[in-house]
Specification:
With 159 residues, the protein is of the alpha+beta class. The protein has helices at residues 2-7, 11-14, 24-68, 73-78, 88-102, 140-146, and strands at 114-121, 124-131, 150-157. Strands 1-2-3 form a three-stranded antiparallel sheet, covered by helices on one side. A hairpin with a 2-residue loop joins β1 and β2. α3 packs across α5 (88-102).
Length: 159
């Protein structure tokens, strides 16, 4: 029995020479987890921007519809040939009022939506709004450098 025991090498002798690779799998695992976490954070940030972009489109639509409602009553009741006329000044004032009223609901986007421009072209009112989304996982000082400014336009026809 002792001869068989001596003929078989022990486990410690079959490993081979030391290569200095001990513990490297832990570093590989930490690196892989880091990549996955970064992927999740970037995906969350992109999703947040896309959702705010869709909300800004809805805001622009609502503001354009409100601005198109500023028909000149005198021209309408006098029966002018122009039909339903909308002045740029009254459309801008109506768009600003509508945006102020909707800042807590439809136009509650990031740091807040702002009116960029109002233009009247024939019987169409074109409104442009902008907003800077807030990214939950990005610090405030860095947010200004990495967050895009979203600008969307919408139009409404006066009929």
């Amino acid at each position: 029995m002792t001869a068989d025991h001596r003929a078989r090498p022990s486990r410690s002798r079959t490993r081979g020479p030391e290569t200095g690779e001990e513990g490297r799998i832990g570093m590989l695992l930490v690196g892989c987890v880091g990549v996955v976490v970064m992927f999740v954070l970037v995906s969350a940030a992109i999703t947040s921007v896309v959702i705010d972009d869709r909300r800004l489109v809805a805001c622009a639509d609502r503001v354009a519809a409100a601005a198109a409602g500023s028909v000149d009553g005198r021209a309408f009741y006098d029966g002018d040939d122009e039909g339903l006329a909308v002045s740029t000044r009254s459309a801008r004032r109506r768009a600003e009022d509508a945006l102020d009223k909707m800042l807590d609901s439809t136009c509650s986007i990031g740091e807040g939506a702002a009116l960029v421009g109002v233009e009247v072209v024939g019987d169409e009112v074109v409104v442009s709004v902008e907003a800077r989304p807030l990214l939950a996982l990005v610090p405030r000082p860095l947010s200004g450098a990495v967050t895009p400014i979203l600008v969307r336009s919408s139009s409404a026809v006066v009929r």
